[in-house]
Amino acid sequence: MSEMSLAEEEYPTEIQDYLLAFEKSVSSVDDMLKTMMSVSRSELLQKLDPLEQAKLDLVSAYTLNSMFWVYLATQGINPKEHPVKQELERIRTYMNRVKEIADKKKAAKLDKGAASRFLRNALYEPKPQSKVAKKTPVPAKKKKTH
């Protein structure tokens, strides 16, 4: 009896679909890593402002720890009981902080004067003028005194 290769073995369709999706994901990660590795880190950091540098560092750390999570799972180790879980949570906390800073930075760019002019003009509705001659103002009523 000859040995069958893994590709020649028959699997249920669902498993085959999962394996193909996994292979596609791994290939996508590989392409992304090749792109990131094609530029030196120092060269890349020079092109980024400090906030973007922080985002890059956090995404890199999160990605590496996520890959380690997958590695642990492939070795039969429960990653939920490993310190990598706390590390991923810590990185997520910093990612949220960076997001808050980025959101505040975007909000600060709002030109309040332009925004108020825009709203004033958008909400302004001129009073319709009748084609009949303009009415003369009615004099104010006198106050009654007792």
UniProtKB/TrEMBL annotation:
Record flagged with keyword Cytoplasm: yes
Subcellular location: Cytoplasm; Nucleus, Nucleolus
Main subcellular location of this protein, as a coarse class: cytoplasm
GO cellular component: cytoplasm; exosome (RNase complex); nucleolus; nucleoplasm; transcription repressor complex
Pfam families in alphabetical order: Sas10_Utp3
Gene Ontology biological process: maturation of 5.8S rRNA; regulation of gene expression
Domain of life of the organism encoding this protein: Eukaryota
Keyword presence, DNA-binding: yes
Signal peptide positions on this chain: none
GO MF annotation: an example: RNA binding
UniProt keyword list: Cytoplasm, DNA-binding, Nucleus, RNA-binding, rRNA processing
InterPro entries: Exosome-assoc_fac/DNA_repair, Sas10/Utp3/C1D
Region Disordered: start-end pairs: 125-146
Summary of subunit composition and partner proteins: Monomer and homodimer.
Family, similarity comment: Belongs to the C1D family.
Function summary: Plays a role in the recruitment of the exosome to pre-rRNA to mediate the 3'-5' end processing of the 5.8S rRNA.
Official protein name in the record: Nuclear nucleic acid-binding protein C1D
Lineage: Eukaryota, Metazoa, Chordata, Craniata, Vertebrata
